[in-house]
Amino acid sequence: MATLCFCRFWLGFGIGGDYPLSATIMSEYANKKTRGAFIAAVFAMQGFGILTGGIVTLIVSSVFRAFFNSPAYQENPTASTPAEADYVWRIILMFGAIPALLTYYLRMKMPETARYTALVSKNAKQAASDMSKVLQVEIVEDPQKVEESTGGKEFGLFSREFLLRHGMHLLGTAMCWFVLDIAYYSQNLFQKDIFTAINWIPKARTMSALEEVFRIARAQTLIALCGTVPGYWFTVGLIDVVGRFRIQLVGFVMMTVFMLGLAIPYHHWTTPGNHIGFVVMYAFTFFFANFGPNSTTFIVPAEIFPARLRSTCHGISAAAGKAGAIVGSFGFLYAAQNRDKTKTDHGYPPGIGIRNALFLLAGCNLFGVIFTLLVPETKGKSLEQLTGEINDDKDVEMGSGTQTVPV
User: Fold this and answer.
1) Domain carrying residue 248
2) What's the pTM value of the predicted model, to 2 decimals?
3) N or C: which end of the chain has fewer CB within 10 A?
4) Do the beta carbons of residue 248 and residue 373 sit within 8 Å?
């Protein structure tokens, strides 16, 4: 237990810290016309990670199920979980070390972003050198531009000037991420309970442990393939056309609509034979989460804050999201328990039931609609225009083919 907690700590401290770094690096190297698509593409790779995790689980559980066939729990509780089943989760967990090692190697080869080096550190020569290596083009520094910029102006996160310029922006990005993750993580972590409630997955007691792992992985992989991954890549294709604000607003609205579509006729969906309609609706909530706020909450904080504080503000927003994930994970676990004490999971008090929990998640999405109004549209604007880090109105772009820095 202590080892797992330690792993989770470093996951949050290390890999979780890559959220603001990845978004900021991509935003500062991209140009204004395709910046949204590039940042969204970075985040969309998460979808392939989810899909890969499901496929790995399917393969491992299938192999063990074939070699160690076990009876259902209701037939023989002890034999339903063979000793070899303990290796399943260990193999799946260890597989995650492969992308972690690749990430570590690639991260070590990445320089500081040229915008930070030029606008904050005031080192145009180093910025030009770093940009030349990354973009593989010859870039010449422009010291005059560095002097004209206001990127080095000293105002901190807790200053009055930051509060006036970006206080509402930070509130908007943090709260949107917070309420989104309440709904999103609730959906993700408790798919098993929801699928069991609508009879798509058999009751746990009717399966062996390996059979249950296989069926849950198959259901989650199907949802990821049909809803999660397409949602990510719709965002990549359309974000620089439609804009961040509209995608986020429509995403929250459609998530609300589909959750209400699940909750209001919930007893209809739990009737045998109707689970296919529920699964389709459920997949659409994931589609509009990813073709919506799950992508835009990652993108916008990397665009609207000044270079000096960009990754910090993105990190604060992401941390608010993880706080929402904690609320959603524990809150839904307790709230979704059956009202009848005899039907709750062992050790849990009666809750409000899955149907009412879905109503609560729909309410979280409505709050997301409200807080979205605090976040500005960033489509078609350079980072310096958005943050006021240049003294003139000239459009200055880093990745647009110009040959001077800051660009």
Assistant:
1) 11-394
2) 0.80
3) N
4) no
